Amino acid sequence: MCADPHPGNIAVDAENGGRLIYYDFGMMGAIPSDVRSGLLELFYGVYEKDPDRSVHMLCTSCHMTHVALVTAACFECCMLCRTGRLRP
């Protein structure tokens, strides 16, 4: 995964099946499959405007148990699903 994907760091090879070409490896890393599936749940929850789905993923993947953290996650997920952005 590239943490800084812009045209100066990444390109698409149109001649070889659309493979990605990386030019800058300064901010590269791998995302473990369990984290990747959790992120997909979070993204789909936001995309489908379903804060419960997003909060559930955060609480289970991040092992959130403290009431204040869960409450903050609920607020942020509801805000993100409703407005498409987090608080300013």
List key phrases describing it.
88 residues, mainly alpha, 2 domains, two-stranded antiparallel sheet, 3 helices, 2 strands
Topology:
Blueprint: E1 10-13, E2 19-22, H1 33-47, H2 51-61, H3 67-83
Antiparallel strand pairs: 1-2
Helix pairs in contact: 1-2, 2-3
Strands, count: 2
Total domain modules: 2
What is the CA–CA distance across the termini? 27 Å
Strand order of the largest sheet: 1-2
Radius of gyration using CA atoms only: 17 Å
Summarize the amount of helix as a percent range.
Answer: 40-55%
The helix-strand sequence is EEHHH
Proportion in β-strands: 5-15%
Note the quaternary state here: single chain
The stretches of 5 or more residues where confidence is low (pLDDT under 50) are none
Mean pLDDT rating: 75
Largest sheet: 2 strands, antiparallel
What shape does the CA trace take?
elongated
Counting DSSP H or I runs of 4 or more residues, the number of helices is: 3
Question: Can you describe what's shown?
Answer:
The mean pLDDT is 75. It is built from three helices and two strands, in the order ββααα. 49% of the residues lie in helices and 9% in strands. Helix 1 packs antiparallel against helix 2 (51-61) and helix 2 runs antiparallel to helix 3. The protein has helices at residues 33-47, 51-61, 67-83, and strands spanning 10-13, 19-22. A hairpin with a 5-residue loop joins strand 1 and strand 2. The protein has two domains: 1-30, no CATH class; 33-83, no CATH class. The chain has a two-stranded antiparallel ribbon with strand order 1-2. By secondary structure, the chain is mainly alpha-helical.
